[in-house]
Amino acid sequence: MTGLGEPPPDCERCDRLASFRTDNRTAHADWFNAPVPSFGGEDARLLIVGLAPGLQGANRTGRPFTGDYAGDLLYATASKFGFAKGIYDGRADDDFELVDCMVTNAVRCVPPKNKPTGPEIANCRSFLEERISSLPRLEVTLALGRIAHDSVLAAFGLRKSAHPFGHGHRHAPVGRFVLFDSYHCSRYNTNTGRLTVEMFESVFSEIRQVLDKR
To answer: Does residue 171 belong to any structural domain of this protein?
Structure first.
């Protein structure tokens, strides 16, 4: 996926992230090590927004949420509710495809320790704005975690106080679409019990119901 809403392979907007990317290219020359493009078709009615590429996940494979635990849970759940087909094998060249769905990140380059700074999040926001604008059929956005939630709100100039983040929260309308929130599907959140498979699936179930009624 290239073009509108996607940063160039050698994006230099964030000095720290560009430097980290260069270091990773030296250490792991066979990894993707570039801004990770969105995954899915532009006919999607559902856009899922995560935080940033994982070092050994999307930064390695070149596809959002691919190659780490978060992707295992996300894509299994997406498949269960009809938003994907094929076999997910943790590789960008598997036969896994999204259906009526696109996955992207608020920050496109892998940050050190998986923690982007405020300015880095802001620097990447225009790509999220363009990505949202490029989806003519978009009806639902799912934010995975507070940073993704806040980035979507900022893309529309909306106040956080009017749309507080919370797992399972539904905000309608946000711009031209319904916004759902979920805790991020990271291993840390599932290991600590902050997010269970049942909790995650309940959000997808509600999204499925919303889209099926439209």
So the answer is: yes
Report the C-alpha gap between 86 and 42 in whole angstroms.
19
Alpha-carbon distances of 189 from 62, 148, 183, 194, 199, rounded to whole Å: 23, 16, 8, 5, 11
The predicted pLDDT at position 1 comes to 44
Residue 137 has a CB neighbour count (10 Å cut-off) of 11
Domain count for the chain: 1
Give me the CATH number covering residue 48: 3.40.470.10
d(CA 207, CA 23): 40
Exposure string over 66-80, b if 16+ CB within 10 A, otherwise e? bbbbbbbbbbebbbe
138-155: pLDDT as tens digits: 999 999 999 999 999 998
Residue 97, pLDDT > 60, answer yes
Cα–Cα dist 23/17, whole Å: 10
Selection from 57, 59, 184 nearest residue 109 by Cα: 59
Q: Specify which residues 140 forms β-bridges with.
A: 46, 178
Q: Kindly state whether residue 2 falls inside one of the protein's structural domains.
A: no
Inside any domain, residue 8: no
- Domain with 163, as residue range(s), is 15-209
Alpha-helical regions (H) of 66-108? 69-80
Q: Which of 98, 135, 203 is nearest to 152 (CA)?
A: 135
Euclidean distance between CA atoms 211 and 170, whole angstroms? 14
Whole-prediction pTM: 0.96
pLDDT in tens, 168-179: 999 977 777 899
3-state secondary structure of 1: coil
Residue 4 belongs to some domain of the structure: no
